[in-house]
Specification:
single chain; mainly alpha; 69% helix; 0% strand
Length: 161
């Protein structure tokens, strides 16, 4: 299980060197391919499905609410989402031998970083909190997240643990 998560993290980290116009598309295509791969580990598929849903939500909302925004903004948010998920999975793997209470603190720190940093301030809470409210989901994050700010908030929260 650890090897699968580490392999996923390494693959995600490779996207950091891409050109700005390609980042969103590459991360989305990778997430879609993983989510659709019936042979992939179910946990990895669930993470990829969240990432795909978050990227699709972000693109939809940017078209609706920020039609003049640049592709660069979408790329920066997509890259930050990727970094956020990578840091989250790294933290869980690195602390897998810690007591369950400590692991729960890690999960809650990342959940709070996501929830407390909305990008669009979307009022459709049923949609944006569908993963957040799912207690069985590993990626319990809000779809309406400013991922750049969430990464910083998660870093700060992890320093305090």
């Amino acid at each position: 299980m650890k090897r699968i998560i580490i392999a996923l993290i390494m693959a995600l980290a490779a996207t950091h060197t891409m050109q700005a116009q390609e980042i969103f598309t590459e991360i989305r295509n990778t997430a879609k391919a993983t989510a659709d791969n019936q042979q992939a580990n179910p946990l990895v598929r669930k993470i990829a499905t969240f990432k795909l849903d978050a990227l699709n939500y972000m693109a939809m909302k940017m078209r609706e609410e920020m039609p003049d925004s640049t592709a660069e903004l979408l790329d920066k948010e997509a890259l930050s989402l990727n970094i956020f998920i990578t840091k989250y999975t790294n933290a869980l793997v690195a602390n897998s031998q810690q007591p369950a209470a400590f692991q729960t603190k890690i999960i809650k720190a990342f959940m709070d970083a996501s929830y407390s940093n909305p990008l669009f301030k979307d009022t459709d809470q049923d949609l944006v909190l569908v993963y957040f409210r799912d207690g069985d989901c590993l990626t319990r994050f809000s779809l309406d997240t400013d991922w750049r700010r969430a990464v910083l908030a998660a870093d700060e929260a992890m320093k305090k643990l």
